[in-house]
C-alpha cells in the first residue's frame, strides 16, 4: 500500500487567543499577528505538494487554510466535524473567570481533561470520537495522497492520543500547541506514525502566541518541562 501523509495544522491566532477568552465554536476573527503567522506558515509549506486541503468552518481555520491554498488551484473542503469543541456555557467567557464560576469543571479540565464535559456543551470524549471519525474518514478517502487538515487546538490534542496509540486517559500528556503548529502523520499498512509533533519553528519567538502567556509557562512548570526539553524531532528534508 502506498504511503498517505497528513499535515494536521492548528489555525492562526484569533481574537480569543489574544484576549484570552474561551472561543470553541465562537467564530472570532484572525488577529494581525495571526495573519503574519498564517503567511509564515504558507511560506514554510510553499514547496509541499498537497492533493487536498480540509478545514473547519470557523473563520480562523478557513483563513489559515486559504493562505496555504493560495496559488495551488485547490478548493478547500469544509467539514463541520473539524470544528472546535462546543464550550457551552464557557463560550466567550474570560479564561480568568472560569475557575471562579465553574471551579469543579475547571479543575477537571486542568487535571483530568479526559473526563471533562463543558457545561451545556460537548464533552472531551465526544470531541475525541468526532475528531477520530473525521480523521479516519479523510485518510481512508485519500489513500496514497498528501493531505492538509486545518483545525483547532483542543481537537488536535484529543486526536493525537489516538494517533499516538494512547488510551484517552493519557490526554493530559499531550502538550498544547501554538497557533499554526504543524503535525505530520504517515499512514501505511493500517498504522499511523507521528513524524512531526507541534512544530511552530516557522514563527520564531517574535510571532509566537503562547510563548508570551503565563498559562503556558505554568502548564510546563506543572509537568516539570523545561524549555530546552521542548525539542522537535522533524525530517523536513523528507517533506519540503
Automatic annotation (TrEMBL):
**What is a single Pfam family found in this protein's UniProt entry?**
His_Phos_1
> What is the top-level taxon of the source organism?
Bacteria
Any GO MF annotation of the entry = phosphatase activity
List the protein's name.
Phosphoglycerate mutase
- According to the record, the segments passing through the membrane are none
Q: Which Gene3D superfamilies would you find in this protein's record?
A: Phosphoglycerate mutase-like
Q: Could you tell me which SUPFAM superfamilies the record lists for this protein?
A: Phosphoglycerate mutase-like
**GO cellular component term of the entry, any:** cytoplasm
Q: Which organism is it from?
A: Caldicellulosiruptor owensensis (strain ATCC 700167 / DSM 13100 / OL)
Higher taxonomy: Bacteria, Bacillati, Bacillota, Bacillota incertae sedis, Caldicellulosiruptorales
> What SMART domains does UniProt report for this protein, alphabetically?
PGAM (SM00855)
- Listed PANTHER family: BROAD-SPECIFICITY PHOSPHATASE YOR283W-RELATED (PTHR48100), HISTIDINE PHOSPHATASE FAMILY PROTEIN-RELATED (PTHR48100:SF1)
Sites where the protein binds substrate: 10-17, 60
Amino acid at each position: 500500500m502506498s504511503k498517505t501523509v497528513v499535515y494536521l495544522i492548528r489555525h492562526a491566532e484569533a481574537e480569543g487567543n489574544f484576549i484570552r477568552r474561551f472561543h470553541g465554536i465562537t467564530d472570532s476573527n484572525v488577529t494581525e499577528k495571526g495573519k503574519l503567522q498564517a503567511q509564515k506558515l504558507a511560506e514554510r509549506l510553499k514547496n509541499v505538494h498537497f492533493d487536498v486541503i480540509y478545514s473547519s468552518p470557523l473563520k480562523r481555520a478557513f483563513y489559515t487554510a486559504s493562505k496555504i491554498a493560495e496559488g495551488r488551484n485547490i478548493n478547500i473542503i469544509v467539514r463541520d466535524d473539524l470544528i472546535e469543541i462546543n464550550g457551552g456555557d464557557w463560550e466567550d467567557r474570560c479564561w480568568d473567570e472560569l475557575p471562579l464560576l465553574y471551579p469543579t469543571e475547571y479543575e477537571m479540565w486542568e487535571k483530568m481533561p479526559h473526563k471533562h464535559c463543558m457545561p451545556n456543551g460537548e464533552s472531551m470524549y465526544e470531541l475525541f470520537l468526532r475528531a477520530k471519525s473525521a480523521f479516519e474518514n479523510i485518510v481512508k478517502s485519500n489513500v496514497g495522497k498528501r493531505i492538509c487538515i486545518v483545525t483547532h487546538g483542543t481537537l488536535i490534542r484529543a486526536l493525537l492520543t489516538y494517533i499516538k496509540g494512547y488510551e484517552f486517559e493519557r490526554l493530559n500528556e499531550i502538550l498544547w500547541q501554538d497557533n499554526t503548529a504543524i503535525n505530520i502523520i504517515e499512514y501505511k499498512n493500517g498504522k499511523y506514525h507521528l513524524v512531526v509533533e507541534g512544530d511552530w519553528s516557522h514563527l520564531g519567538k517574535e510571532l509566537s502566541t503562547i510563548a508570551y502567556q503565563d498559562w503556558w509557562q505554568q502548564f510546563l512548570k506543572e509537568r516539570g518541562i523545561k524549555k530546552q526539553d521542548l525539542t522537535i524531532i522533524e525530517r523536513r528534508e523528507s517533506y519540503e
